[in-house]
Amino acid sequence: MFRLFRRSPNRDVIDRLHGEVMALARQPAFFAEYGVADTVEGRFEVLALVGALVVRRIEAMPDPGRDLAQDLTDSFFTHFDVALREIGVGDLTVPKKIKKMAQGWLGRGVAYREGLDQPDDAMLTLGLARNVYGDETRAGEPQILRLARYARSLDAAFDGMDVPTLLRDGVPRVEAESV
Q1: What is the pTM of this model?
Q2: How far is it, in rounded angstroms, from Cα 37 to Cα 53?
């Protein structure tokens, strides 16, 4: 629990990577063209998708990739904590909400990783339909297929990237409009 609030020696790097992930997740096309609800929940879903993909790829990099991935994940939850408090969630309720968010974040991360590990998009679109759109029966719809293509494009943008390249160039900027 206290790990969430410690000061990482990678703080400047993590803050920059966090901002880049947030910028990717806030692209208007997700809400205007992909049909993701422009709500707190919809924004969380896109952030969970983009965040899980980025963390997955950083985690797979040689040292210190795993530590950077953990620090980035911790950064998301530190910001979730702050955001909940800013919108008026009470101090006693915040830990419960953070726990629920963490369970959802981790479950989504597993679903998206497993989907990306498959040669076809069936498992990925099912996870996206269930989590982002709230309805598994929609897995074959064009917007969900497009979101799966976006996920694969972002994942592929990390191919050949190592930690020094990530630190120099940042998170690959995959534009939602172009997918």
Answers
A1: 0.91
A2: 20
